[in-house]
Design a protein that fits this description.
The complex is a heterodimer of chains A (82) and B (227). Chain A is of the alpha+beta class. Chain A has a single domain (2-81), classed as Phosphoribosylformylglycinamidine synthase subunit PurS (Mth169, Chain: A). Chain A is built from two helices and three strands; from the N terminus they run βαβαβ. Chain A has a three-stranded antiparallel sheet with strand order 2-1-3, with helices on one face. Chain B is of the alpha/beta class and 227 residues long. Chain B has one domain (4-226): Class I glutamine amidotransferase (GATase) domain (Rossmann fold), CATH 3.40.50.880. Chain B has helices spanning 15-26, 62-65, 68-78, 88-95, 152-160, 212-218, 222-226, and strands spanning 4-8, 31-34, 45-48, 82-86, 102-104, 112-120, 136-143, 147-149, 164-168, 181-185, 191-194. In chain B, the strands form two sheets. In chain B, strands 2-1-3-4-11-10-9-6-7 form a nine-stranded mixed sheet, with helices on both faces. Chain B has a two-stranded antiparallel sheet with strand order 5-8. Classes of the chains: A alpha+beta (82), B alpha/beta (227). Chains A and B meet through helix 1 and helix 2 of A and loops of B.
């Protein structure tokens, strides 16, 4: 067993309206950040786990996303292992 | 006698209203199931009530949808038992994959708590047969994540299959929901999820009884009451 640290990034799929991102975009504009074209917000999860190999860790993390961390109807996810 | 079971999660808060509604309409108190239960009492109708299960952490209904009791709910639904999810219950049913699509943050980002108008989009189903097609009824809503979304393919499917049960009517869409969808059936028609709260409009003391017929239909009580 080895220990791994991973980061999972969950974002709304392209084409899915992101009202929170829109509100943040508006707030940035009102703070004077005029060059902002678009804001899309999402979530990150920092996960420490034990697994027999990096490949096994990646497999587990993908399963976590599919089963719980992301709602794949509306969200995409990306797994990065350090 | 029709048997109803109401499923409770930590953070359910409309379960009491649902118990009162079922008891008053059917004359029988419902059974209760806790989120850790692995089986349900024999039921003709299973209800997932509103609230903020597990604090709405991660996504509304996401953690409740993975609770042990939901496996039993899915098995009951597969056998044709009627299942109703209201508000957080609707979110839970979509998260559990028992209904298509997802419920996202309201388009104006605010929690909405008010009365809306609903039009009945399909009344050829026990849940809605007490209403006329396109009949407009009143119903309260109270939610933060009621903005129904489904991809184009799924949306076309549910529209063509008559799976839309209710739409927000007369410009009262409170959350940006696609096609004004307020409630949908599964493909088989025995699972209904809806954001509005029919259990809060079932007796004159509520200011109206427009929600009553939904439960009468679901419990096969329409003829007995109108006869």
């Amino acid at each position: 067993m080895a220990s791994f640290t991973a980061q999972i990034r969950v974002t709304l799929k392209r084409g899915v309206l992101d009202p929170q991102g829109k509100a943040i975009e508006g707030a940035l504009g009102s703070l004077g950040f005029e060059g902002v074209h678009q804001v899309r917000q999402g979530k990150t999860f920092d996960i420490s786990l034990d697994a027999s190999s990096k490949a096994k860790a990646e497999e587990e993390l993908n399963a976590m996303c599919e089963k719980l961390l992301a709602n794949t109807v509306i969200e995409d996810y990306a797994v990065t292992i350090e | 006698m029709q048997r109803t079971t109401i499923v409770q999660f930590p953070g359910s808060n409309r379960d009491r209203d649902m118990i009162a509604a079922i008891t008053k309409i059917s004359g029988n108190a419902p059974s209760l199931a806790w989120h850790t239960d692995t089986s349900l009492p024999d039921s003709d109708l299973v209800i997932i009530p509103g609230g903020f299960s597990h604090g709405d952490y991660l996504r509304s209904g996401a953690i409740a949808a993975r609770a042990p009791v939901m496996k039993a709910v899915a098995e009951a639904a597969a056998k044709g038992v009627r299942v109703l999810g209201v508000c957080n219950g609707f979110q839970t049913l979509t998260e559990a994959g028992l209904l298509p699509g997802a419920l996202m943050r309201n388009n104006r980002l605010t929690f909405v708590c008010k009365e809306v108008k609903l039009s009945v989009a399909n009344n050829k189903n026990p849940f809605t047969e007490g209403y006329g097609l396109d009949e407009v009824i009143r119903c309260p809503v109270a939610h933060h994540d009621g903005n129904y979304f489904a991809d184009t393919e799924t949306l076309t499917q549910i529209e063509n299959n008559g799976q839309v049960a209710f739409r927000y009517a007369e410009g009262t869409n409170p959350n940006g929901s696609i096609n004004d969808i307020a409630g949908i059936f599964n493909e088989a028609g025995n699972v209904l999820g809806m954001m509005p709260h029919p259990e809060n409009l079932i007796e004159p003391a509520h200011g109206g009884i427009d929600g009553r017929r939904l439960f009468q239909g679901a419990l096969n009580l329409l003829e007995t009451e109108t006869a």
